[in-house]
Amino acid sequence: MATALKPEMEARIADLAMRLGFTGPDAAERVLAMALDDLDAKTPTPRRKMTPEEIEAEYMALSAAGRRWREEHPDEYDENYPPSLAWQDELYDERGLPK
Q1: How many CB atoms lie within 10 A of CB 33?
Q2: CA contacts within 13 A on the Cβ side of 76
């Protein structure tokens, strides 16, 4: 893929190459590669849609973890007052507005 750069952009790249100590005919390419590597590292990879088997496996793992926690912390879990209600009470007032 051919890319045409404006003179201002070429000047910025040349300035960066000089400041980074890059010399030679590939200096601009090294600056661009460095910038692309930085952007690539900062950009999350796109998530793909999970297969039904993956969804079931994740659900089973989370369900098992929840059961283990309830078994290990019987005094902290109340069937009539699950964590979702506790968080609701902690985060929202009696009108349902954020505290």
Answers
A1: 11
A2: 9
pLDDT, tens digit, for every residue of 16-60? 999 999 999 999 999 999 999 999 999 988 889 999 999 999 999
Distance CA 75, CA 84 (A): 17
What predicted TM-score, i.e. pTM, was given to this entire model? 0.46
Q: Say how far apart CA 25 and CA 19 lie, in whole Å.
A: 16
CB 5 within 8 A of CB 16: no
Segment holding 88, helix H or strand E: helix 83-91
Cα–Cα dist 14/31, whole Å: 9
| Contact call for residues 28 and 12 (beta carbons, < 8 A) | no
Q: What tokens appear for 33 in the block?
A: 């590669």
Report residue 91 as tokens. 């985060």
